[in-house]
Design goal:
This protein is of the alpha+beta class. The chain is built from five helices and five strands. The strands form two sheets. The protein has a three-stranded antiparallel sheet with strand order 3-5-4. β1 and β2 form a beta hairpin.
Length: 139
């Protein structure tokens, strides 16, 4: 145990033991895969967004939960936070290089799931502007 964190030596490099409760990597994995963390990373894959844009794009998240998740992801080095000195301040979030690297497999997972759902979903009924066709013998 080194400095309160259990580590397991792997060759010349040390590796964190994510199964140990004090492991910092475990905390980061928890933040990335939390209910809202994953959606933040996916939402930012196409570019930077302001706080309110993130809140609008991730439906169902409260401002409090979004703020908590953003703070954790910034602290983990996955997001960068830029504040423009305006009144009120405009805060923009974007992926760091590390955040982009971590979000790639999440984006791949999301894309695979949505492609699978799209392929297995029944085709929507055709919508026409004409009146319904009467059943035979109903004339």
């Amino acid at each position: 145990m080194v400095g309160g964190v259990q580590r397991r030596g792997v060759g010349a490099a040390e590796r964190y033991d994510v199964f140990h409760t004090d492991c910092p990597a475990r905390d980061m994995v928890d933040h990335v895969t939390s209910r809202w963390g994953i959606w933040v990373l996916i939402a930012l894959r196409n570019g930077d967004l302001r706080f309110y844009e993130l809140r609008e794009s991730i439906q169902g998240v409260s401002e409090k939960m979004l703020a908590q998740n953003l703070r954790a992801l910034v602290d983990d080095g996955l997001l960068r936070r830029e504040v423009e000195p305006t009144t009120p301040p405009q805060v923009t979030y974007g992926l760091t290089d590390f955040g982009r690297e971590v979000s790639e497999p999440l984006t791949e997972l999301f894309d695979r799931i949505t492609a699978r759902l799209s392929a297995s979903a029944p085709a929507p009924a055709a919508v026409t502007d004409s009146a319904p066709v009467p059943a035979s013998g109903a004339e």
